[in-house]
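Chapter review: from sequence to fold.
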Amino acid sequence: MKQLNIIEAMKMPIGTEFEVNYDNKGRAISNMILKENDSDKYLDWINGPPLKVFDFLFSNIKFIPIQKPVSFMEVVNSNKRCKVEHEYVKEIRRLSDLCFVYKLEFKKGEYMPLNYLMYALGYHCSQEDIQEIIKNGIWYLEE
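The token string follows.
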């Protein structure tokens, strides 16, 4: 879970949504979305009470990008590391078993190259299960 300050958040792509935490205890106060007006970027509240400029300047506000799922084809066409959520993947006790071949230790839920993920799934799942994961899994790309 990547935490950004306001300067880093403003560098993210237009349309990025954030969970906004305002203290070290990680209490979420609201969600925001990065928008553009003419040539200026700004953060707009999705829900919750707006903060004053003073709150942004003198508090420990952190912006956590809310990840959006992508299609499997977007994963295939990307060179980024990925992860997938699916009930069959949750049943796999040690998704990282075969990754020792590559001297890497991936934990379930972590991002990994698509070829490593598919290799590990192929070791643990049937062809039908892999087809189900590809079709109905929730895929994410590492930012």
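Two observations follow directly from the output. The helical segments are 6-10, 53-58, 72-76, 87-91, 114-124, 127-136. The chain has two domains: 6-65, 72-141.
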